[in-house]
Amino acid sequence: MVQPKEKRYYVNTMLSDHYEIYHVKDNVNNEKTVYHYHDFYEVHATLEGVATFFLDNRQFDIVPGTVLLIHYNDLHRILKQSTDYFERVYIFITPKFLQDRSTEWTKLEACFQQVGEQRSKVLQLKPEKLHELLQFVDEKPSQEMYGSDILYEQQLVNYLMYLNQLIEEDEQEKPTLPAIQNERIVEMIHYITKNLSHPLSLEEMEQNFYVSKYYITREFKKYTGFTFHQFVLKKKLLYSKQLLKQYKSSSEVYSKCGFNSYAHFLKTFKKEFGMTPKEFLKHANENPPIQFTEPH
């Protein structure tokens, strides 16, 4: 068995509050990876190794050259690693960073815009091209070298422009097909996503999909790692954050997310996000910097 190479993190925290870059080489511990989401965008690039990834409603293999454009608040996780060694680069970046560096002709946020039902996207580049694009990551700027911070940031922008061009021109290689699929559960997930204003009980799913509650409970946990009720609640709460930004009032939002009680909505929102809806709105309006403590 090939021994895992030395783990190394490179974290860029000194240049900007609105992006962080991690270069990670290690063996993923599948027991320690968890479903999660961010309030900012993530660009996840695989340089070496193969793994199965869950992104919002999809499971698929990521291989050398795979780039994931992960929209904020989309659930994702590395489910399992197929090789002993895995090397990847994460870039966490705020919408404000992309907006501030965009022009009328060049919108850096375009690659994260929704197409059909999907906001997050999967690209497949030639591995050697991806290595070339990400060479700048380990070239840490120095305060003693005039302009090195600006040059570093410009290479980040160049990388993002390249990814936007791939999507606009639709010339990238086709991404790998889903590695694991349960079509019935996928259909249920799409139904949940489109009907978050519904109660979405097991009984409702039984009536719509003609399968037993036992089947739903077992297969949902197997496919997503969540119980059915956990998954529905998390999707409703993530949806509520979108609606809060639109309506600016939690009293107008809770019923649109399928909560029967305003008090229940407030309680579960605070438990999930560590803040009240009012605090979330204040936080969102301030364009908060990235706050992230550890690669995943």
TrEMBL record:
GO MF annotations in UniProt: DNA-binding transcription factor activity; sequence-specific DNA binding
One Pfam family recorded for the sequence: AraC_binding
UniProt domain HTH araC/xylS-type: residue ranges: 186-283
InterPro entries assigned: AraC-bd, Homeodomain-like_sf, HTH-like, HTH_AraC, RmlC-like_jellyroll, Tscrpt_reg_AraC-type_HTH
Keywords from the named record: DNA-binding, Transcription, Transcription regulation
Gene3D superfamilies: Homeodomain-like (1.10.10.60), Jelly Rolls (2.60.120.10)
Protein name, per record: AraC family transcriptional regulator
